[in-house]
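Batch manifest, entry 17 of 40.
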Amino acid sequence: MASPSILPGKPSPAAPALVGDIHAVPEPANLQVDGEAAESVIAEKRIGERIKHLRLKKSMGLVELGRHTGLSASFLSQLETGRVVPTLRNLARIAMVFSKDLNYFFEPEPQTLFRIHRGKDRVRLPQSGVQYPSYFFESLGYMVPDRQLDPYFAEFLPAKPGRDPRPHRHFGCEFLYLLSGTLDLRHGDTAHRIAPGDAVYFDSSTTHSYECSGPTTATALIVTLQQPVASNGNTPRNGNPPSPAPRGDRKPAAPAPLPTKPRVVHRAG
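Output type: structure tokens
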């Protein structure tokens, strides 16, 4: 496809993610419009779908987007479904609401996220911050950029003097599925004996720890979602690693008060 001749010579000026008044949105400058080329390219690039994606990502309704752009909700709805083609001026207004430039709508669509982590490529790391590690772990998602959850394979060694389970906590929730062996999982003041096939889902902002309770190594799959269970919308993603492998075993700062979530243990059989 020929390169469109409708793009501005430089990116549109950035704007806040949301603007309170349409008059605060500057008019795009120096746009060279080729009407037929514009309509052709906009249709082929599925502009409406991209606008809808941006809007939903911000949890923004059509009426709200219309308020920020000066366009009607009805027009925006038709635009998103491909029934109308926007002018470059309207498209630039929409782009600036989301702090994008016009190039965003004409670049190739990003590929669907898909990653394979080969077993031979994974790295086995020990519990950090202790002389005698009580567990080892392998990240199952380290190649995924901006991931929403962190999956791990963990091996817990049989209890031995000098091995410290090191209680810890972090924002979010945690899921554990025991593959083999037996494990004592302490959550708050309560200890639970976990057997193969058992699954546990719990609030990880409560102090918790693991300890192998049998004569052989216990193995488990662990998934953590390190985001506040209840957030006011401005709490950043916790940078600390998941429960199996706290970096340096630093004690996280006490999280803001969170609603109590029950521990849920699903017993096998």
